[in-house]
Amino acid sequence: MEKIPVVQEHTPTFAKDGKFHVRLTEGRFQNLRRLTTWPMIALFFGLVWVQIDGTPWLLFSFEQRRIILFGNALSWHDLPLLAGVMIAGACLLFFMAVAWGRVWCGFACPQSIWTWLFIRIEDFTEGRANKRNKQDKAGLTAELLLRRSAKHLLWWLLSLATAITFTGYFIPVRDIVDGFITLGLSPALWGWLLIMTALTYANAGLVREKICLHACPYSRFQGVMFDRDTRTVTYDAQRGEPRAAKRGKSSNSGDCVDCGICVQVCPTGIDIRNGLQAACIDCGACIDACDTVMDSIGKPAGLIRFASETELAHEAPRFLRPRLIGYGAAIVCASAAVLYGFTATSSLLVEIRRDRNALFIQLDEDTFCNLYHVKVESFSDSDPVINVAITGDHTYEVFGPAQLEMQESNATWVPYRICATDIESPRSELVFSFNGQTLTTSKATTFLVPARQ
């Protein structure tokens, strides 16, 4: 297979000291991006506040050792299910990359979403890109200082809201907000919020495109995943070259008027006309900008568009390829395994350990006792009390609590002494049964006595 050339630019040619201002544009791809990103933003900031009967709808609680996933309580033993979800998501990401390039980065990646939010704030406080460029050249003034102060203040407030919301998926967000207002948070939580706020501020406000180019691993292996049939943001050089300004166009000139708007609207500052590049996030901003220019000069749209090398070569494109079929099969298998796993989850987990100091205790010639340590973990608030019963091949006398208060004994080891008389077999089955109002489970173990001579 012919390798796709990847051009990588570290600094835009028009940038001053590595700094450039992104020009906002409108168009169908920017509208599509908003249709995908705004619901995701609303879900991120909104789901953390949803409660059902006083219980968060979505919470990964380290303190309670439970996962509340859309109202369903799971234990930490169910974490492999979340790993399965991540595997299915990764396969979907690879499937989309092979088919349509880095559309995840341009339309759904949190780094890109927050970068666009910060650019919007910058555009609102300091003005549009051309105005910001002029202000940089003119130097710092009192008005510019006030505008920049407002910009950074809004950046910090958005970063703080992001940090609190993200942390709210691990600690109830209402507790965080109450502690934040009353200054009652622990030093560790204060430090965590400060770090998360600073990272969000730096990533979306200061570093921006450098994350996509230098820190994101996806940009590094995208060139390996692409093939000739991958549809990605592409400049049609056959149609656009040779470039010429509108006033100097001749009959031999291409459609590109070399206006540079496609570069000015790019959030990573690349020139898509130089070919496929690692920093391109396939957001479609250059497509919308170029289509606007083409419409203004009476040329057909699509000089920059989502296209594959096969399409540019006027060959028939292929969608069903071995790599796509493989990723699709992996998505189906991983999703099926996760769905099956969710049907087999339990809200009541039990562990039983025998006492390691003695296999058995002999009280008299015919009476023997075994010592056990039992831990019961309930991941549901519907059964505050769990009843404990013992059944087996013989009649057993139980020394231990018949009921366990889940709020008090949850995830703690409770000792039990089980005694029996006149047992002939050295190994007998013994079953611990645990029953609540809605939860029930049982676990078998063995009862040991010395072998008869």
Automatic annotation (TrEMBL):
Keywords for this protein: 4Fe-4S, Electron transport, Iron, Iron-sulfur, Membrane, Metal-binding, Transmembrane, Transmembrane helix, Transport
Cellular component terms per the entry's GO annotation: plasma membrane
A GO term for molecular function: 4 iron, 4 sulfur cluster binding
Gene3D superfamilies xrefs: 3.30.70.20, Immunoglobulins
One matching Pfam family: FixG_C
Domain 4Fe-4S ferredoxin-type residue range list: 247-275
Annotated protein name in UniProt: Cytochrome c oxidase accessory protein FixG
Organism: Marinobacterium halophilum
